[in-house]
Amino acid sequence: MQSVYQCMESTCEKLRQLNIAISNIKAVGVTNQRETTLVWDKETGEPLYNAIVWLDLRTQSTVERLINEAPGQNKNHLKPKTGLPISPYFSAVKLRWLLDNVEEVRSAVRSQRAMFGTMDSWIIWCLTGGSSGGVHCTDVSNASRTMLFNIHSLDWDPELCRYFDVPMEVLPRVRSSSEIYGWMKSSSLAGVPISGCLGDQSAALVGQMCFQEGQAKNTYGTGCFLLRNTGTKPLMSDHGLLTTVAYKLGRNEPACYALEGSVAIAGAVVRWLKDNLGIVQSSAEIEKLAAAAGTSYGCYFVPAFSGLYAPYWEPSARGIICGLTQFTNRNHLAFAALEAVCFQTREILDAMNQDSGVPLTQLQVDGGMTSNRLLMQLQADILCIPVVKPTMPETTALGVAMAAGAAEGVGVWSLSPSDLPHAAQEKYQPQINCEESEFRFARWKKAVQRSMNWETTEPSCNADDPQM
Fold first, then answer.
1. What is the pLDDT of residues 56-97, one digit of tens each?
2. Element of type H or E holding 463
3. Which of 17, 186, 412, 450 is the most exposed, fewest CB within 10 Å of its CB?
4. Cis ω on the peptide bond leading into residue 459 (within 30° of 0)?
């Protein structure tokens, strides 16, 4: 929490330097990595174990056991209620691992001291007082990523909780994405309402103003997340996508749903090239290296470091680089890494077009990687449709600010379509023919098949395990 308070205090100090009164801050919004899981002690206010992040694979053996026990060994066994396949990605199996492996968590559950939450729940609880009356809540967009939440009834599902053997009393109360949950108890913002809560990808969907059915956005961060608004009815995917609650912008407003394609490794592949291989000194350098090559020279990189997410949901996959020759150099590898991000997006866009029956005619994009102009051009070339980037790429923060400011009791602005401003944009048009794009995509899919079925059981844990 120290970094949260530091961020808020730094913001307040910056406003003071600009001669803007802190009293102008009317509300606070919270956005977060959705599936990352934490259990804490409501009496001491301390976490009972390190948070298990969304990419963590320690639950793979738990997932394999659940799938083997499911009717027909079907990983989509719970999808009619949750919209999700059984996967290490989601919170329920992370919480199950904590209950199975951490005595402090089991003990706290037995003595009714345990609280579970994704990071939004932890942050809101702490900011509203923690062990001295903190509010234990989450919003529908985060709850829908746990595998414990019924996306139709919009509440925790007793049957799902029994399936994962999770006690319902540890769960936070589910609220809308835009309402006053409580008030800041300390810091320079004491007394300011916390009135917006959205998982990061839902926040970006709101920030991109994708409020109409059929609108979609792709966020390029550590991973890559393509969401398409499907309106007030959930659409179940037949092509490996997730059905998720996008947002519910008010207590009495209907929930809106989205189809989502999730890619585990996008920006993380650049960090891997920098930190693990040392072939670039900074993330910005990869664009220069890739541009110098102008091609991958037949090299294909499948960065399945945490298995494959949509549309395969194959935790046994691992990363591979194939098509290497004696002429391949680091420039080609840099180009192949950027192409990998684009190919993964192409796979989930194709699945989304098949599910919806209405192909996207352009892709709205945001996130840190969109500053890489070569990546954006490659994406347009590989999709064969224009890629549109807002001039303000931090749409996740913008989206939750929009939700917080529109909450009943805050009301500093309206999210009615007629009140929304037009955002300035930059557009990338495809520059290669579709035949070349299809050839490169077919080679990529061949590489994906090579990456599968490397790991089928969880590695044994030891003190040097970086995931522990």
1. 989 999 999 999 999 999 999 999 999 999 999 999 999 999
2. none
3. 17
4. no
Spatial separation of the C-alpha atoms in residues 150 and 40, rounded to whole Å? 24
Strand 193-199 relative to strand 300-302, pairing: unpaired
Q: How many angstroms separate the CA atoms of 404 and 195, rounded?
A: 5
Q: Under a CB-based contact definition with an 8 Å cutoff, are residues 203 and 400 in contact?
A: yes
CA distances from 131 to 31, 102, 134, 152 (A): 22, 22, 6, 32
Q: What integer pLDDT is reported at residue 421 of this predicted model?
A: 77
Report the distance separating Cα 165 and Cα 289, nearest Å: 50
In this prediction, residue 419 carries a pLDDT of: 80
pLDDT given at position 187? 87
Whether the CB-CB separation of 174 and 399 falls below 8 Å is answered with: no
Q: Which of 224, 209, 466 is nearest to 340 (CA)?
A: 224
Alpha carbon distances (Å) from 460 to 81, 396, 467: 33, 37, 11
Look at the chain and count its residues. Answer: 468
> Can you give the pLDDT at residue 457?
63
- Regions of the chain with pLDDT less than 50: 460-463, 466-468
Contact of 84 with 154, CB cutoff 8 Å? no
The residues with which 193 forms a beta bridge, in sequence order, are 183
Tell me how far apart the terminal alpha carbons of the chain are, to the nearest angstrom.
20
C-alpha span between 336 and 333 (Å, rounded): 5
Report helix angle 330-356 to 434-451, nearest 10: 100
